[in-house]
Specification:
Length: about 375
């Protein structure tokens, strides 16, 4: 039977026109497939009049899901109390299926459920290029315009901002995420905002800034929709296959996406040292280099004299460079944020004592290895 007869049920009586004659038939069974099939028994017209009133049948609404988008995010520690080695995922689908299931496998078969993404990400794309900005203070020059696929953004007070509100991420061409905060969200047109009053490179992500991050970069508001995956520390760096889609559909459904990704465990990565400086002894020609370390977690308190170490032990790697961006002449492993570069060692590296020296310093984690390095060209201003 055609779709227009979907209201018919067992017990209904119909008239079949066959061979120029009308046959009253009572339906005894219906079955839905690519078309509706039915079984019938002979009936009389009197039964037809009594048992086949005009009626409408109610049907369950069938939702057809489009493709699911998933965004894999290598992020540092956000609060400080989460597992440092895990990666994160956010998801987007139209219509939203209520939850997105994320399956994982070391190959292209044998997928096992890893996690559920229970909320739709507030996400979109940048409209213009996003340039690098100052660190550790407000960026009042840059404005980021984003067009959202879903969700809304709102302005917050400066107090709320400094208490952790409005954290967002923008992904550069290399797949790295810069975390930043925005105080003001001005609605320009439907779904499009100008974000200003920015705090840039949060949690050690300043290395993801570019000049610029090109238009069309992925933007995600970092809230509860950004979901941690279930990972073991020994899975860091492994390229694993993921499938993701509506929880109500199978892995072979057209709504499911597939991606291979290797998370880097950025929650374990030491932060870049700051305040590099050098002082030369005019009598001996020796240089003393100093710097200040940062911490991955627990560094917001103003009560302590210095931030917690955040690593099992304090270690640094210092490189002596042959000029800015030059070759490495010497590498030194250290256990304190200081290094005495004697005139004798300078003679061995350069052939003579130096009036200025270019250094590069990274903090080292026994688990992660060296973090991002800070580079500084030090001058003897008395010369």
């Amino acid at each position: 039977m055609p779709p227009s007869r979907l209201a018919l049920e067992p017990g209904d009586v119909v008239t079949l026109d066959a061979g120029g004659r009308d046959y009253p038939l009572r339906l005894t069974e219906t079955r839905d497939a690519t078309s509706r099939r039915s079984k019938r028994a002979r009936s009389s017209r009197s039964i037809s009049r009594r048992c086949a009133p005009e009626k409408e049948r109610e049907f369950d609404v069938v939702t057809v899901y489009g493709p699911t988008d998933a965004y894999f995010m290598d992020l540092p520690l956000l609060r400080g109390d989460e597992a440092p080695h895990v990666g994160y995922i956010a998801a987007q689908a139209e219509p939203w299926p209520g939850a997105v299931a994320v399956y994982r496998s070391p190959s292209t078969s044998g997928y096992a459920l890893n996690t559920l993404v229970g909320a739709r990400a507030t996400s979109g794309k940048s409209v213009f290029g996003f340039y690098s900005g100052p660190l550790h203070r407000f960026d009042r020059s840059n404005v980021l315009r984003v067009k959202l696929d879903f969700g809304e953004l709102e302005s917050v007070t400066e107090e709320a901002l400094l208490n952790g509100a409005n954290v967002a991420g923008i992904e550069n061409e290399d797949g790295d995420w810069e975390l930043f905060q925005f105080q003001t969200a001005d609605l320009i047109e439907t779904g499009t905002y100008d974000l200003s009053g920015l705090l840039r490179g949060m949690s050690g992500t300043e290395g993801a800034m570019r000049d610029p991050v090109a238009p069309g970069a992925r933007f995600i508001l970092v809230n509860s929709a950004v979901t941690p995956l279930n990972m073991r520390p020994d899975e860091i760096g492994l390229a694993l296959s993921y499938k993701y889609g509506p929880t109500t559909e199978g892995l072979d459904a057209a709504s499911y996406g597939t991606r291979t990704h290797a998370f880097q465990g950025l929650g374990l990565r030491p932060l870049r040292p700051v305040h590099l400086q050098g002082k030369r002894d005019p009598e001996t020609g020796d240089w003393m280099f100093l710097w200040v370390r940062r911490t991955r977690a627990g560094g917001d308190s103003w009560q302590g004299l210095e931030v917690p170490l955040g690593e099992d032990e304090e270690r640094y790697q210092l490189d002596i460079l042959d000029g800015p961006g030059g070759d490495v002449l010497r590498t030194v492993d250290l256990t304190a944020p200081a290094f005495l570069y004697s005139a004798t060692t300078q003679n061995a590296d350069f052939g003579a004592p130096q009036w200025n020296v270019n250094i590069r310093v990274a903090q080292v984690s026994p688990v992660y290895g060296p973090g991002p390095a800070a580079e500084q060209l030090t001058y003897d201003y008395q010369h």
